[in-house]
From TrEMBL:
Organism of origin: Aplanochytrium stocchinoi
Pfam families: PhyH
Lineage: superkingdom: Eukaryota
The protein's name: Phytanoyl-CoA dioxygenase
Listed transmembrane segments: none
Gene3D superfamilies: q2cbj1_9rhob like domain
Length: 374
């Protein structure tokens, strides 16, 4: 998969001046359909030579855990480029989230929660098997993602980081690791080593804080998010090392970069945690570092990506496009205040009713700000 080319196409789509939000949406939908098939065609690691750079089990250390509202969250994030906040979702919240996730998997990929054999060959219908990323079939507007976005502690934490309650949410996707330790399933283990940042050379300084809510414990036995602590402070260095032809916000770290020799960690976290990281932080997801011990009749990783940024950063045009994206079940990248669609809705999805949503949901879409600006 040519990620740089994809980012370039998405950037051009977002920058194109169109007559009205609806016509813009139609054009981006056509582009998204073409991109979707490129994205989900992965069945091998796109960066096979990089897997030797993954964190080592011998050097693994659990990161510190912060409680919701801890005054030191922002300080740790600013210093290390990532932070873990536990207990944003309780057992009931995570249980409900799993039900919503399985509902999506069943409806859009035919994966039956009680029949593991149905999990094997259908992943490509919803995402990239080699990385576990799910970004198609309307996942960005699914009940699963909206359940996580509307958890009070999730917004509270982003509000604390940005020092405002007026936030937009991303319409991003999810990630899923299958039980590759099941007999004969070794080929379903994800691949790692694709270290990158999600902020390009046109954006310097802090522009975005990404996030995910994990439904299972993230441990060396499950794999999960890997980061190079403090690497957000080296963004300018990375930009200088990237190919001059690089455009967009997805930047792979060149294999020759000294940055890849620095300490890497798997971000361990208990179920129900929110993990945040600066978009300039070098990261990827990595597979299990040791043989899993959990049951083989369940997934070993389920996370939902949630990013929030201040409403004031979005243009009027972006707000209009976001409203239409919600209505039409469009999934986007992690950027809330830019409109970068990634894939379109599934054919069996019906349009969302803007009159049926809660005030909190409308605010995260940006409808309240759009109405004030119109």
């Amino acid at each position: 998969m040519d990620q740089i080319k994809i980012s370039k196409i998405l950037g051009k789509v977002a920058a194109t001046e169109l007559n009205g939000a609806k016509s813009a949406l139609k054009k981006t939908n056509r582009t998204s359909k073409r991109l979707q098939f490129k994205e989900i065609s992965l069945n091998k690691s796109p960066f096979p030579d990089m897997e030797t750079l993954l964190p080592s089990l011998e050097e693994h250390e659990d990161p510190p855990l912060f409680e919701v509202g801890d005054a030191n969250i922002s300080e740790y994030l600013n210093e290390h480029g990532y932070v873990v906040i536990r207990n944003v979702a309780d057992e009931e919240d995570t249980g409900k989230a799993k039900e919503f996730f399985w509902k999506f998997l069943n409806e859009q990929a035919g994966m039956d929660r009680n029949q593991p054999e149905t999990w094997k060959e259908k992943f490509y219908q919803i995402g990239a098997p080699s990385t576990g990323i799910i970004n198609s079939k309307g996942i960005g507007q699914s009940d699963f993602l909206w359940h996580l976005r509307l958890l009070p502690a999730v917004k509270q934490t982003f509000s604390q980081v940005w020092k405002t309650d007026d936030l937009l949410t991303s319409f991003d996707g999810a990630n899923l690791f299958r039980p590759w330790h099941r007999e004969g399933w070794e080929k379903y283990k994800t691949r790692g080593g694709w270290f990158h940042v999600d902020q390009g050379k046109e954006k310097r300084g802090r522009h975005c804080i990404q996030g995910m809510v994990t439904l299972f414990d993230a441990t060396p036995a499950t794999g999960g998010l890997c980061v190079i602590p403090g690497s957000h402070k080296e963004h300018d260095k990375l930009i200088s090392e990237a190919p001059k032809s690089t455009t967009g916000d997805f930047i792979l770290v060149p294999p020759s970069s000294e940055l890849l020799q620095r300490r890497k960690i798997l971000v361990s976290a208990p179920a129900g945690s929110l993990i945040l990281w600066d978009s300039r932080t070098i990261h990827c997801n990595c597979p299990s570092m040791e043989m899993p011990t959990m049951p083989t009749d369940d997934m070993i990783r389920m996370v939902g990506y949630v990013c929030m940024t201040p409403q004031k950063l979005a243009s009027l045009r972006t707000l209009k496009l976001r409203e239409e994206a919600f209505r039409s079940n469009i999934t986007t990248t992690h950027w809330p205040h830019y409109y970068y669609p990634s894939t379109v809705a599934a054919p069996n999805m019906t349009d969302n009713d803007l009159d049926a949503i809660s005030e909190a949901q409308a605010a995260l879409i940006g409808i309240d700000r759009l109405q004030r600006l119109m």
